[in-house]
Each structure stands twice: as structure tokens, then as C-alpha cells.
Amino acid sequence: MQNDRLSLDEIARRVDAKSKAFCDSSDRIWAMPELAFEEHRAVEEQIAMLETEGFRITRHVGGMATAFIAEAGQGGPIVGILGEFDALPDLAQQSRTTEHAPTKSGTPGHGCGHNLLGSGSALAAVALKDALEAEGVAGTVRYYGCPAEESGSGKTFMARAGLFDDLDAAFCWHPNVINEVSTTSSLACVQAYFRFKGRAAHAAASPHLGRSALDAVELMNVGVNYMREHMPSDARVHYATTNTGGIAPNVVQAYAESLYLVRSPHLPDAMTLFERVKKIAEGAALMTETSVEVQITDATSNIVPNKALQEAMYENMRRLGPPAFDAADTAFADKLQKAALTAADIQESVKTHGSALKGKVLHDGVLAMPEREGVMMGSTDVGDVSWVVPTAQCHAACFAIGTAFHTWQLVTQGNLPAAHKGMVLAAKAMASTAADCLRNPDLIVRAKAELRERTGGRPYICPIPDDVTPEDLRSKAA
Fold this sequence. Notes:
Blueprint: H1 8-30, H2 40-52, E1 56-59, E2 68-74, E3 78-84, H3 114-135, E4 139-146, H4 154-160, E5 169-176, E6 180-182, E7 185-186, E8 188-197, H5 213-227, E9 236-243, E10 255-264, H6 267-288, E11 291-300, H7 307-320, H8 327-340, H9 343-353, E12 375-376, H10 382-388, E13 391-397, H11 408-411, H12 417-439, H13 441-455, H14 470-476
Parallel strand pairs: 3-4, 3-5, 5-13, 7-12
Antiparallel strand pairs: 1-2, 2-4, 6-13, 8-10, 8-11, 9-10
Helix pairs in contact: 1-2, 1-3, 1-12, 3-12, 5-6, 7-12, 12-13
């Protein structure tokens, strides 16, 4: 049954009516960046906004102090809009600059635009709630406050807790340099610490009594590097040495650790590759007569695309059109490109997203949906949501073309008017597509049928072991 009262124009009008308040909220979150599982001020900011708008709040969901659900309306269908608000370490940066200028060295910054992401999603939820109330339409709107996307996979824990099980559809977005509906899958991943324990000794007087944990870390790295030739070309293995055992070379290091991130387009393949990495670690421990402890800290499933929802979202974005960037927006983007982005940075955007970006500083169009689905060479815990419920995601242009994620160049643009305009477009696209699900229940039926077909009816299996909790990650990941 159609419900034409929830029109695109009506949803857009309601987003515009509340946009300034939520752009201001985004800027406040930009100014107080917090790392994974520590986003307490951002959560309080968002809860205050949503309570004012009449949402019912459930705190501390999924075993996480910074995860919450805000709900409005009643009955079905139930649509969910996903938000994030975590920052990245060591990316503090002054606003509107064209050179690296940290606000305070060594502190976090919103290098992935999650201040915009969460605020834009909350704005979408509020606008949709307002439209439902005004028209007396049945349905439930949920905003999910999701922590720790960058490191910790908050949505994965929320999926494990069953918090998405009764949703009919889910929507999200990500700030970007382009306007498009995302049609790609993503890389599933497993991240874990490898903690080696040995025996300290005087490195000159009695080295034969020592067993070096640092040697084990280095040998593991050598082994993984030899493995790279013999793994699928679309898989990835990254690492960081997080503890070298101290700064004294005359002490045999009794403890050392490394952090590995293993990725592949499908979760079973990522898990298989991770088991091979574990065997290499065990071999390194055997060679050095040390012991090794493995602690999984993060894992996500690959995204399951949903063409039914994507096509509906694309039609809405096409009708809405790109953000209305003005001369001031373009002037700063041009200045930043020339001063802080390389030709290779800009070419990467053009190569990835097509010639529609060539010669431009801000994207002033909406990219057409590609004929074939690809794989995004990155990972996100949105993947776990997409295994449970049909999910669609869009990207909105908030930054100068060529801006890379996880950089100070992105942070410096994160509270500018251009970023706000992209955020508002995303809110309209998400809210209007969620409204389409309420207007036309057949869209939900088709989306759910597609999800069953793509997964082969296999139930969602959480990639994070049952005995790993968010609190474990906060207390042990040092």
C-alpha cells in the first residue's frame, strides 16, 4: 500500500528545518574528539539533542557505555539509521588551514568525519520522525549511536547482541569527496594483538640466559612477509609493532607485542588467512623459546549490498541533486588542493570515481550507479549490520577532491559550511529512502528477499569470539 504523504519534498523540508541545530552539534563534536569506546561527551551531546526531539533513549546497549538507541514512533515497519562519532589518534588539527597545524600535539582528531556522520544520521532520524507524526503514519524510527567504528567494531558487538534483529531496513552514510550511492562490498577483517613473553637477561654478560620476545615479533613479521606471495591478491595484511620491550639495548626484551589486521573480501577467507598468521606467530615463539598470546580486538564482516534499497536511494539522491556549494566553498577547496594535496592525491580521486571529477575542486554532481558491483578496499562494521538486515549507504561530498581519509587535511575541513552541506544532503537521502520503505512495504519485501538470496539463507555469525567483550578491549589494548 502506498502512502504518498511521506513525499521527498516533505522530508527535505523537514531536514532543512532542523539542519542548523544538527550542524552546530556536529561542530561541537568536531571540537571534542574522542577515541573508540571513550566517546562520552559526543554521546551526551547526541542524547540531549534526540531527547529534546522526543526520542526514547536506551543507554549502554551491547555492553558498551557509549552505545545507545534512540527510538520514536510505534508499530511497524521499523527502520534504523546508523550513526558514529569516534575520532582517530594524533590527528588534532586547526580548522580552515592549508598547513599542518595541530591544536594540541598527540591528541585525537576527526580524520574520518564521524562528527558529520553521526549528526547527519541523527538529523535524518529526527526529520523522518517529524514527518510520521505530522501525517499520523504508523512506523518506528530508530537512531543507533554506534561507538568505535575505527577500532573496536561497535556495530559488530551490537549485532552480536541482537540489536538489529527486528529492523526491516537500515540506512547509513559516510562523508566523502563525492556524491553517490555506495554499491560496493567491503573487506571482512580480523585484528588481533600477538603478545610474546620471553625471559630478560643481561645482553652482554649472560645473553644465553635470555629469550627475546622482540626477536619473536621480528621473526613473525618476516614469516608473514614470506606468506604474502602465497595469499590471494585481494587480501591484505597490515601490522604495527606496539611494544618493543623497552629502550635499553643491553637488556634482552622479555615482552613485546605486535598488532595485525587481516582482510579479505569474504569473512571465511579472512578467518582462514588469520589462522595462517597465528601459525606463523606460533613458529616464531617456537624458534625463540618464548610464548605467545593472541587477543582478537576487532573483526567485521563484509558488506552485503542490497540493490533494491540502493536503487531507491539513488533515485532520491538524483532528484535532490548535489550540495549547493558557493564561491567561498570552492575558493577554500581550491586553496587547499594547491597548498596541501598532491597531484597524485587528486588523481587517485579521479581514477577511483571517474572523469566526472576531473578538473574540479568540489563534486557538483551525483555519480550514476555502476553496472557492476565492486569491492571497497577497506573495512567497516556496517558489514555486520548488512548480514542481519537489508542495508543501504550513500556518500556525500563534504571535502575537496583529493582529500584522503585519516589525514589532517580532512580534519581541517570537518566543520566548514561545505561539510555541512554534504551532511544535509545525506540526511535527506537517508530519511527519504527510509520513508519509501514506509510508503511502499513491497520495497521491504524485495529487499529482504534479496538479502536471503545473497546470503544463501545463512544466519549471521559474529566474527568476534563470544568471550571477547568491549571492556576487554578497553582494558587490555595498550
